[in-house]
Amino acid sequence: MRLSSSFLPTLKEVPAEAQIASHRFMLRTGMVRQMSSGIYAWLPAGLRVLNKIADIVREEQDAINAQEVLMPTLQSADLWKRSGRYDAYGPEMLRIVDRHKRDLLYGPTNEEMITDIFDQFVTSYKGLPALLYQIQWKFRDEIRPRFGVMRGREFYMKDGYSFDLDYDSAVVTYHKMMLAYLRTFQRIGVKAIPMLADTGPIGGDLSHEFIILAPTGESGIFFDSAFAEQNWLEMPVDINDKDSLAAFFKRMTSFYAATDEKHDEAEWEKVPQERKLEGRGIEVGQIFYFGTKYTESMDVSVTGSDSKKIYPHMGSYGIGVSRLVGAIIESSHDENGIIWPDAVAPFKAVIINLGMKDQACKDVCEALYQTDPENFLYDDRDERAGAKFADADLMGHPWQIIVGPRGVAQNVVEVKRRKTGQRAEVPVDQVLDYLSSHQD
Amino acid sequence: MRLSSSFLPTLKEVPAEAQIASHRFMLRTGMVRQMSSGIYAWLPAGLRVLNKIADIVREEQDAINAQEVLMPTLQSADLWKRSGRYDAYGPEMLRIVDRHKRDLLYGPTNEEMITDIFDQFVTSYKGLPALLYQIQWKFRDEIRPRFGVMRGREFYMKDGYSFDLDYDSAVVTYHKMMLAYLRTFQRIGVKAIPMLADTGPIGGDLSHEFIILAPTGESGIFFDSAFAEQNWLEMPVDINDKDSLAAFFKRMTSFYAATDEKHDEAEWEKVPQERKLEGRGIEVGQIFYFGTKYTESMDVSVTGSDSKKIYPHMGSYGIGVSRLVGAIIESSHDENGIIWPDAVAPFKAVIINLGMKDQACKDVCEALYQTDPENFLYDDRDERAGAKFADADLMGHPWQIIVGPRGVAQNVVEVKRRKTGQRAEVPVDQVLDYLSSHQD
């Protein structure tokens, strides 16, 4: 995109209501605009990040053969009366009455709806296991929305649901999902550590929260640093082999990781001193096996091979896609602005033209830009160099390609890596190679 | 996808409430499921079509340099009070009260919201023209939702908005959008004819509805068949040259096309008899220049080059994405099922295995399937041939690749084109070439 003709407005003033870095930077870089309390419009730069995260989430769900569906945002209250949650949910559920005086609600989550869909289409054990997910807008009427998109009211979330014939099969599904989540966060470029979460009356150990390390996080966390060094993308796991999945899961859970709620001092003592990491974190996902809670309460069953009635075992699997945008910035910024991981940056690189009146500079910029106009942002504004540098740091593009008259005369440009601040002079015809060979 | 392990359920019984073909076929093929009156969940096959349409819409909007944003589904009532439409809109607007007793609404359209966003970020004539769009869920509380996704309450729509400095510049934008729309519908594979629509108090001729020919359509239409033969994808139009755009627009509007509301018998008489086409049609899009209606009522202005206050001229541009899914089926089906245009079919082809117990058949199917598992559907179910053929016709895949023991023994498969019923014996190793060389 060309910055001069794009809707990528930056604001000079920091809005007063923004208390944390991600909220400030998202407003200043025009990624989002608040339209009502806790309700945001996503402008082009923000939307690009949101979509890139959603695409990675989608690819990893598809890789474990989860099937994508899309449920409506509005739901009938009747569905929630069947499960008994309509009265129990409380004031965070946005309740709506339509013109025919029927009770609707804006879905905060979809266990009831997916169970109802499953009920119509799957009647036999042969239809199991079933693994469905969606990426859709949801609404929770938070009493005090804050921290921008991190605790908004209308939010974008991947929610997945599984149906299995029995506990053993549900465990296999849980292991697959754990792998998909670890791969997803690693591809996005953040360290999200799964931590054992409360399973309530269900019991067992099949509930994990995924937490990103960030000083503004709501939970205290304790974990073994060896965990963060694992490469889940290169781990040889066969998702069609339950023993391979179980071995992976056992290895994964062998590293200590707990929020302060579940922290166990005795286990923590066993972690070698140099690998103990404490800090604060932001929850960006959760996976949870909850058995037959909804299938029983809604009386949704299948017929087994022996013709007996079976209540499928369910799990649910969430990733806060819009929340992640804020959480990534919380965990990756400095005083000058955002530092985007390569995989989710709105643009791969910004081309900064310092010689707007110099034909040679313009030619070099234009030629570079045309090699990948979809992924390069070309700062072709009539602005001083200082303003262009400041905006580039603020917006956090992984690379800055700085094109000035002096360099161009020698056929070189300057390339700066945002994350490290490292600079290099690179011949014009080697810029693309330089970027791809110097990516992490 | 493998049909045996996919969530692609077909229903044998026709639901009683479905009066028209598209509604019946969408329910029978498990593309959607009704969750409340006029509110649908999209299952995998339906979602694939919805996304393919949205992607084509998006690419053609991006091609005219429209910028994608994403506005929230819920809006503050205050915004609509500013424009005066909050009271005027009537009972189709779904009005909501949140826990703090603030008035919200589920957006039926976004003129107010986009104007408010524009207001914050664009203050000078230098920011014009601005062209923004989104593809997002909307809600209209129809009194009698019917015809499935064609007249639902929660619906998916592309809505775009333009801001120009004056009328002349708004006309150029209008011409660009007309071109993008004609290209969009042609790529989707439907004949959508733009027809002059009512401009109300705005006047002029800058309002067109795009109408797909279908016997169940709500409007009577009259048009010159020469229109439908134009190839907009190969028309040499330079979108950066207003004269080129104007010439294209003049040519486009030289063909007679009108709904019964705007039908002009005298003009109709001038169309050669053999080119006169009459029928019924479904509206799937509208483009509309409405001047300073919202910028004046909401007092949103920019500063001109002479420092004077200017109210930008606006237009809005809609495409009913979820409605199109139904409309395409209305215009393209037979008694056996859907006939998908290639570009938006959920799958490019179905591989029908007639020899589930024959190792050679399984090997051929598997090898074909693996060449493109994302776009091929492999019918690997343990079903009779008749059921597989019927489902293939019902689901409307553009191609059927029929693999049976007798053919495989001679190293051939049968390829059937759904649209024409034409069949051919094709050597196994030439199937992919055959499909690509026999596409329209």
UniProtKB/TrEMBL annotation, chains A, B:
<keyword id="KW-0067">ATP-binding</keyword>
<dbReference type="Pfam" id="PF00587">
    <property type="entry name" value="tRNA-synt_2b"/>
</dbReference>
<comment type="subunit">
    <text>Homodimer.</text>
</comment>
<protein>
    <recommendedName>
        <fullName>Proline--tRNA ligase</fullName>
        <ecNumber>6.1.1.15</ecNumber>
    </recommendedName>
</protein>
<dbReference type="InterPro" id="IPR045864">
    <property type="entry name" value="aa-tRNA-synth_II/BPL/LPL"/>
</dbReference>
<dbReference type="GO" id="GO:0005829">
    <property type="term" value="C:cytosol"/>
</dbReference>
<dbReference type="InterPro" id="IPR036621">
    <property type="entry name" value="Anticodon-bd_dom_sf"/>
</dbReference>
<dbReference type="InterPro" id="IPR006195">
    <property type="entry name" value="aa-tRNA-synth_II"/>
</dbReference>
<dbReference type="Pfam" id="PF03129">
    <property type="entry name" value="HGTP_anticodon"/>
</dbReference>
<dbReference type="GO" id="GO:0004827">
    <property type="term" value="F:proline-tRNA ligase activity"/>
</dbReference>
<keyword id="KW-0436">Ligase</keyword>
<keyword id="KW-0963">Cytoplasm</keyword>
<keyword id="KW-0648">Protein biosynthesis</keyword>
<keyword id="KW-0030">Aminoacyl-tRNA synthetase</keyword>
<dbReference type="InterPro" id="IPR050062">
    <property type="entry name" value="Pro-tRNA_synthetase"/>
</dbReference>
<comment type="similarity">
    <text>Belongs to the class-II aminoacyl-tRNA synthetase family. ProS type 2 subfamily.</text>
</comment>
<keyword id="KW-0547">Nucleotide-binding</keyword>
<dbReference type="GO" id="GO:0006433">
    <property type="term" value="P:prolyl-tRNA aminoacylation"/>
</dbReference>
<dbReference type="InterPro" id="IPR023716">
    <property type="entry name" value="Prolyl-tRNA_ligase_IIa_type2"/>
</dbReference>
<dbReference type="InterPro" id="IPR002314">
    <property type="entry name" value="aa-tRNA-synt_IIb"/>
</dbReference>
<dbReference type="InterPro" id="IPR004500">
    <property type="entry name" value="Pro-tRNA-synth_IIa_bac-type"/>
</dbReference>
<dbReference type="GO" id="GO:0005524">
    <property type="term" value="F:ATP binding"/>
</dbReference>
<dbReference type="InterPro" id="IPR004154">
    <property type="entry name" value="Anticodon-bd"/>
</dbReference>
<comment type="function">
    <text>Catalyzes the attachment of proline to tRNA(Pro) in a two-step reaction: proline is first activated by ATP to form Pro-AMP and then transferred to the acceptor end of tRNA(Pro).</text>
</comment>
<feature type="domain" description="Aminoacyl-transfer RNA synthetases class-II family profile">
    <location>
        <begin position="33"/>
        <end position="341"/>
    </location>
</feature>
<dbReference type="InterPro" id="IPR002316">
    <property type="entry name" value="Pro-tRNA-ligase_IIa"/>
</dbReference>
<dbReference type="InterPro" id="IPR033730">
    <property type="entry name" value="ProRS_core_prok"/>
</dbReference>
<dbReference type="InterPro" id="IPR044140">
    <property type="entry name" value="ProRS_anticodon_short"/>
</dbReference>
